[in-house]
């Protein structure tokens, strides 16, 4: 109960830095990863110090405070408030630049905004801190697959395949990694293996499957298990 109260107080103390109360434009550094990486003005630096001092008084440490603002960021992101979420992630990063989750979050938002090259760089920062996180590796692989589709460079496909191999070794139940590995095999024209990974993925979680991809795969090779039929966008019920 005490921890919840302290967190609430800290959030109120940070109200002066609230995104909703600040004038923000599309190019504002508040909505760019790591505040855009630009040198801050003296006034901005003073505001940061005020925020950090407030958090130091109301949290046991900055790591805890960083986690708190990460959680707020995820809440805003789930509500579709991307800019507000990014600002909260920036505050979490300001509190703890060593928090891999901030770079991970930056990567996810950048990827969703179509900034794939930036997303890859941010994922790499997160992986440099925690290279044994299956979910992180699978998210990074998706960005590399997007780059491969856009630029058709084998180095991107190779990078995705490597991360997915690690992700599935770390967690064999990571359905997203298995699905992305199916895509890798499809691009490599190894359609039987693509089907194998696709079925492993859908046995765990059907919701992430892109049926446009399924139809593309069916066109290259009929489903060996007969679960997906040619010309159909849905699975059989047999």
UniProtKB/TrEMBL annotation:
InterPro entries: TPR-like_helical_dom_sf, TPR_rpt
Name under which the protein is recorded: Tetratricopeptide repeat protein
Top-level taxon in the UniProt lineage: Bacteria
Signal peptide: 1-20
Keyword terms: Signal, TPR repeat
TPR repeats: 100-133
